[in-house]
Amino acid sequence: MNLSDDKMRAMMKTMLTIRAFEQEAQNQFAMGLTPGFVHLYIGEEAVATGACAALKEDDFITSTHRGHGHIIAKGGDVKYMMAELFGEESGYCKGKGGSMHIADASKGILGANGIVGAGHNIAVGAGLSAQYRDSGQVCVCFFGDASTNQSTFHEALNLASVWKLPVIFVCENNGYGISVSQERHQNITDISVRAQSYNIPGVTIDGNDVLAVYEAVFEAVAHARDKKGPTLIECKTYRHRGHFEGDATVYRTEEELMEWKKKDPIPRLKNFLTDNEIMSIEEIDAMEAAIKQEVEDAVVFAKESKVADLASVVHDVYTDIVEEARVR
Ligand SMILES: Cc1ncc(C[n+]2csc(CCOP(=O)(O)OP(=O)(O)O)c2C)c(N)n1
Ligand SMILES: [Mg+2]
Q1: Banded pLDDT at 316 (limits 50, 70, 90)
Q2: What is the mean predicted confidence (pLDDT) over 186-210?
Q3: Atom 18 in ligand 1: residue holding the nearest Cα
Q4: Inside any domain, residue 184
Q5: What is the signed CA dihedral for 62, 235, 69, 282, rounded to 10 degrees?
Q6: Count of domains for the chain
Q7: pLDDT at 321
Q8: I need a surface site. Which of 198, 228, 234, 280 has the fewest CB within 10 A?
Q9: CA–centroid distance for 322 within its chain
Q10: Residue-range definition of the domain harbouring residue 91
Q11: Contact at 8 Å (CB) between 135 and 127?
Q12: How far is the CA of 239 from the centre of ligand 1 (A)?
């Protein structure tokens, strides 16, 4: 694999940043300081990290309601993200989007999305645009297992296949759609089999192995840039928290959670890096401490910011009343 030590260090940093951000988002929500829902990505960090590490800065991603990890992995700034969670004017969407609608067009982040399955067709649009402009860009579309039962999933794979669009469909199979287990919501074990219907490559991989995710996405990106069309990659993973914060998780057992915690992607990468003498444990600890500080600073930034003005609710809705386009 063409993975430099620097790239692996960067992946460690991204995974630790996602974990620290999510833990802080969990705390702030528990204190009642962030309005709305929050769906945490803890346990699934390897998917966003491995996938985005295979992309260039001007490539695109589409995200989901569980989007913080995707945004951080594609280069989102935790300060503006945290401010958005707090509903502050200094947030990515001026505090009007919240956790589920963070976007940063300047980094190719086409948006988290509260509508399950909505990202699939946005990704096809981005792929069509890249193909039309012959820009060489690709789009990674992140989505959950349950969203593959939505019609949008099938429409998107079909069109992307027919038109050979540069889209990489990355399924985060965490075994549940809210409280409904995969075996209750679909009559298949491996979602990658659905690629066969559209005559595109489909693979199932260990989504808690960041290097495996990187390798699979890297290959799919090369395939897409070669104008050979889309790939479906199913990453088996698990969320450690409930569907949303406040979910009592009565639909799953403590044993199941414990089994998956043993497969936590973060200690796994730490062990790989230390065993192969790419990083020492002291270096990883120092990295983690600096990240925790950055996330704490993001909370201070968010708290010191101004809450979005009520009158601003009608701004940025129609293009003719946009006063100032905010593209970070
Ligand atoms: C169109 C639509 N239907 C239903 C919902 C309610 N809903 C929110 S998340 C979710 C389940 C999503 O499960 P999955 O796609 O596996 O993603 P995960 O939450 O596991 O990451 C549902 C049904 C929604 N937001 N949008
Ligand atoms: Mg799911």
Answers
A1: confident
A2: 98
A3: 144
A4: yes
A5: -150
A6: 1
A7: 47
A8: 280
A9: 28
A10: 5-321
A11: no
A12: 14
Q: If we measure between CA atoms, which residue out of 43, 41, 44 comes closest to residue 25?
A: 41
Query: In whole angstroms, how far apart are CA 178 and each of 23, 39, 163, 312?
Result: 20, 10, 33, 33
Residue 134 banded pLDDT, cuts 50, 70, 90: very high
Please give the distance, rounded to the nearest whole angstrom, from the Cα atom of residue 20 to the centre of ligand 2. Answer: 22
- The phi and psi torsions of 290 (rounded to 5 degrees) equal -65, -40
Of 165, 166, 170, 173, nearest to 141 by C-alpha is 170
Contacts of 57 (CB under 8 A, 6+ apart): 75, 107, 108
CA of 2 to the centre of ligand 1 (A): 35
What is the CB neighbour count within 10 angstroms for residue 251? 14
What ranges make up the beta strands (E) of the chain?
Answer: 60-62, 139-144, 167-173, 176-177, 180-181, 202-206, 231-236
Mean pLDDT of 216-227: 98
pTM: 0.96
- Determine the average pLDDT of the residues in 166-173: 99
The amino acid sitting at 118 is: A
Q: Give the CA distances from residue 246 to residues 40, 101, 252, 279, in Å, rounded to whole numbers and listed in that order.
A: 11, 20, 15, 37
Residue 326 lies in a domain: no
Is residue 327 domain-resident?
no
Taking CA atoms only, the protein residue closest to ligand 1 atom 4 is: 116
**Rg of the chain's alpha carbons, rounded to an integer?**
19
Mean pLDDT (the chain) is 96
Q: Is 67 near ligand 1, meaning CB less than 6 Å away?
A: no
Q: How far are the Cα atoms of 46, 89, 119, 212, 270 from residue 37, in angstroms, in the given order?
A: 23, 19, 19, 31, 31
DSSP code of 109? Answer: B
Tokens of 2: 């063409």
Q: Which of 66, 101, 178 to mutate to test the pocket of ligand 1 (most atoms within 8 A of CB)?
A: 178
**HEC per residue, 159-177:** HHHHCCCCEEEEEEECCEE
Q: Is 22 helix (H, G, I), strand (E, B) or coil?
A: helix
What CATH number does the domain containing 233 carry? 3.40.50.970
